[in-house]
Amino acid sequence: MLVVGPNGAGKTNLLESLHVGTQGFSPRTRNDASLIRFGREGARIALHGDHAGSPVELNVVLQVGAAKRASLNGARLQAAEQLRAEVATLVFTPDRLVVVKGGPAARRAYFDRALSRGTPTQAALPAEYAAALAQRNASLRGISLGYSTREALRPWTERVADLGAQLVAARRDVIAALEPLFAARAGELGLSDAALRYEAHPPSVESLEARLDRDLDRGATGLGPHLDDVEILAGERDLRTFGSQGEQRLAVLALLLAEAELVRERRGVPPLLLLDDVLSELDPERRRILAERLPAYGQALITTTSAAALPVEPNQLVEVEAGEAGTVLR
Ligand SMILES: Nc1ncnc2c1ncn2[C@@H]1O[C@H](COP(=O)(O)OP(=O)(O)O)[C@@H](O)[C@H]1O
Ligand SMILES: [Mg+2]
Q: Ligand 1: which residue has its CA nearest to atom 12?
């Protein structure tokens, strides 16, 4: 589906609402109140669709000053974010460049989300590790301040070592599964010899204890997957520092397409793809390659300011214009 309209018409708003409606949260902000139209008390997103051959109905309601609510086929979910376990949505926005360009934390967050989406049984692992790490760090500071003991720290060290090793293994698994798909999609888009290299630091009880004095000084655990990075390479070039802006975009797009294939393979249903302003950043040849590839991925929505930017006829064209009452769809 191609969503066309001038700047400021509300294309990104529409795409964001599809993300909130299918995943329970915005890809842009954690501040749900900013998703509500200025001056209004609430917002509602209702979606009807087909999921693996069965009809599906999703509802998300946002209200100023209240927790958001979501339901799936009429049944209320405990948390709107639970929609993620039901429907997979992958999004490309120009901000996503941070995955290639930004610091290690942005890449860890990205690959941990990919891990959660691609391996639903381990979806909670990154958060469980982060929680154990926070407890261990609090305990380290407690020892320095004299209200905790090394004995009390021990269970947290064991837990960080255990969950840390599991997290490293799960990341290795998802990165190994993504890599050949990433290299293939990147190659088609003209980025040759693309590769992912995961630099892992699996912690063990022994290695954590060996550096205990340093960790006590810093009040933080200085070893483990919370410090890892994933290099995104083209040949031996690290695209973070040596990639052009255009190559960095292609890498983000290739990662998204790779993940779409992985999600389809592992969950049996292709994800919904939301591609915001992706065409304006590609040359005509790469637009054509992307346009020819997309139909293989299930449902995709692309926003653009000009319908001519897509070199193929879209299945559905939605024109968006800014109106008095908000965005108008035709
Ligand atoms: N919470 C809000 N309530 C009302 N308008 C908003 C809100 N948030 C953003 N906008 C406005 O919506 C307009 C459309 O934005 P956007 O969807 O980004 O346009 P496009 O992607 O078509 O260029 C912008 O002018 C923006 O200021
Ligand atoms: Mg926009």
A: 10
